[in-house]
What we know:
Layout: E1 12-13, E2 30-31, H1 42-50, E3 54-55, E4 60-68, E5 74-83, E6 92-102, E7 110-118, E8 128-137, E9 140-149, E10 155-164, E11 182-184, E12 205-212, H2 225-240, E13 244-253, E14 258-266, H3 271-278, H4 288-292, H5 296-309, E15 318-324, H6 334-338, E16 347-352, H7 364-371, E17 375-379, H8 382-401
Parallel strand pairs: 1-8, 12-13, 12-15, 15-16, 16-17
Antiparallel strand pairs: 2-7, 3-10, 4-5, 5-8, 6-7, 6-9, 8-11, 9-10, 13-14
Amino acid sequence: MLLSKTSRGAALVIAAGAALLCGAAAPAQSLLPPGRGAALIGSDLAVLEARESRKDLPCLVTPTRPVLGFDLKFHAGFEIAVPLRELAGSENLLTILFRVTSDKEKDNPAYFTQRIRVPSIDEDAKGEAYLQGAFDMGEGKYTVDWLMRDRTERVCASFWESLAELPTRDKPLELSAKPGELLASEKEEFADEPAVERSTTDGALAVKVLVNFAPQNWRASSLQPMDTSALVSMLRTLQRDPRVSRFSVVAFNLQEQRVLYRQPAEDRIDFPAIGEALKGLQLGRVDAAKLRQKNSETEFLGELITAELRVQGELPDALIFAGPKVMLQENVAPETLRVVGEPAFPIFYMNYNLYPQMTPWRDTIGHAVKYFKGQEYTISRPRDLWFAVTEMVGKIVKLRSGKHPATNASNGGTDEAVAH
């Protein structure tokens, strides 16, 4: 995908993969079906088998180390720099092919491919073209055999090893990719989740989730891919827990002061519908009447909280807020929250905050959760999300069964827990 136009003295930037930490909108390489590797042209296979670096097509390949994302998969890949003069002339076609072999599956490598069309470039163009590629993996050690060729059959080839390993303290995490598993990076952030076999021993837990789809940076004019990925991963991690079988979702944006999407209680979260609703998100555009209203964001939040806590009909077993830290000029007034009375279910807050040391104080949603004696988790890293959901659902099970008081007795009656 072409990201910037070419010109003399400027670099051509082409993206061939997704952002490595949490996913992005750029297309990733395609994973060839099993057995298709044998159908590759002989010259390509000969280069991969020889495992000798080639610079017929001059390029610099820099592997990127595997990083665990909020989706609980390792993301790895590479960055490529090619002098523009090597791509000068009429339109070109770059073909990237690489083979990744797990130490656990040496006889069953995975093949990835990507074709990139390069526009016409001036003969005297200066600078470099930059490309990126990405793929997903489970924990393990891998060998990568990589090549890129142009239309004239010039080849750049590189080879390296890649280690995806959890720290000792994170070993309990249940990753969404199995050890040794290789996957193409997700091209669709809001794809449907596979069905989950639900537990029957704990009963059919039902949760209501209120997600503030907003960027970490309150002043940002758009929702960043990293933020979207983290927030969607919160929902996916909840849905993957077999102890929860009913989900209702309210997606909102506090900056726009608008509910974007509502899903009544269903047996799964409708991710494509949420993604479609977010297409209408226009940060920075607020109704003029609301701009004239003092503390309109606080009023919107107060109305949303009171409306969602006054549940009509079937009660959820818990209400969960999720979203980035929200620092409004005023918190929701106690008298606004008081009209709700004592909630009939516990309240939790997964506060997505990549830099908690910069804003260590409680935010506006956190103050409302505290008022209702709820519990807050700070989500800064993938391990925080997994441990928070695991503990939170465990508490919901205990509260439902009546084995535990509604307040957080484990920390002496305080109302906040921060996961690290």
